[in-house]
Design goal:
This protein has 494 residues and is mostly beta strands. Helix content is 6%, strand content 34%.
Amino acid sequence: MRTPPAHVAPPDRARKRRRLARTTLAAAVVAALGGSAIYIAGAQAEEVAVPGQVQAEAFAAQSGAQTESTGDTDGGRHVGWLADGDWLRYDNVSITGADLTARVAALNTTGGTVELHLGTQNGQLLASFPIASTGGWQKWTTVTAKASSVPAGAQTVFAVLKSIGTADFVNLNWFTFGPATATTPSASTTPSASSAPSSSPSASPSGAPAGGGWVPVDQARWSRELAAFNAITPKAVPAGTTRVPEFHTDCDLANSAPDDPIVLPGLAGASHMHTFFGPRVDAFTTTDKLLSSTTTCNAPGDLSAYWVPELRKDGKPVPMKSFRVYYGSRVKDPSTVKPFPPGLRVVEGDAKKQVDTPKNAGSNQFWCAGSAEIGRSADGNWPVCAPGGNLIFQLVFKDCWDGKNIDSPDHKSHMGDPVNGVCTGKYPVAVPDLSFMVNYQSLGGDGLSLASGKPSSMHGDFMNAWEPDHLGALVKSCLNQNAKCGVEPTFAGG
């Protein structure tokens, strides 16, 4: 039985399809090339292969997109949350004819177009699909377009979303780039002959920028690091130590830039403005580059990169007061926690979520540290803090890993939450639980905005570049022994 589609339009027309809570993607999506079709497996068992199709979720990179279960006839998943300016990139596409099609659904009367460009977002226009309301977000129809040319060889194709409105306006399920032939259109997500993400190492998973697809862990390197971790003798926990699995790192501001090497690798200036902590970061940052860099973080061995969207007051950056990352555990048995795999990249939060967050909204809440909240901004989204306090946000990451991939198409689906306090099922490996504590030199109030929009769009990125011996010692002595530490496994300064 197909999983019922989760995408339902809320009644508030201003929000359109921005939901108050997002469902974490629990299913892996992998492109498996077979014969004359691309088969997207892992979302539902009954999804079908159709010759000549490129599934929309087989993108190599994206901006603004999310995938979810589909109610269309071929099952699987589709891509949604698509608004003006969003885009999807497909690599190694063979265009076999001028007659192109796209499978779409929409419940936005404004409509728009899906433009296909060659090479870059602003490259040669291949074709445009007109998008009008189909009567529902799961009311699917096939639209057609004529290619301006039929270029030979493998192409990079960008699907660029255009609309005069600001709300999401289309769901995409698949494209065809001409008739089906033996040389099928393909996309650059990790190919595999099975229905699960491949666990075989890529040539350089830790050094290559994330491209938006599944990135398998280097299993040989991970096995070596696990063996070294298992051989560590933990330090004895002194009497009087607080029995909480925890250590932390404190970082100063490294730089600010409109870059995102996880979501938009190699595309300088393509992102909203981010505030980076740890090493200096740009669009071309990789784990290997981080490991040879200097850092603003004070935990020995921590060369990881952390970032959040820039906070602004009347359009100007708000100064940082402090940035601390707590490493802890939410599982019942913290002795099961392992270090992060080499090259892990994770995004937490939703930069596309633009909903109001009044007091006690329950999520995406900024709050006052060190003093009481004495009011709200005129729009209700920001607290006003009493003197002596400051504006703060806490962002908690998922801490169960799939054991196979260091990145995924949405940069989230390789991570999950514990179930009844245990990492199990598709996410069997317990890793440290990250918690960003982002403190600003601000008392809150009017005039505030994130570079990504409303407070609900707050999100964070983590690119693991811990030196394995340092991280292993902290995990073994502090987390595994349920003991509170500071920046080193000395049970002091926590």
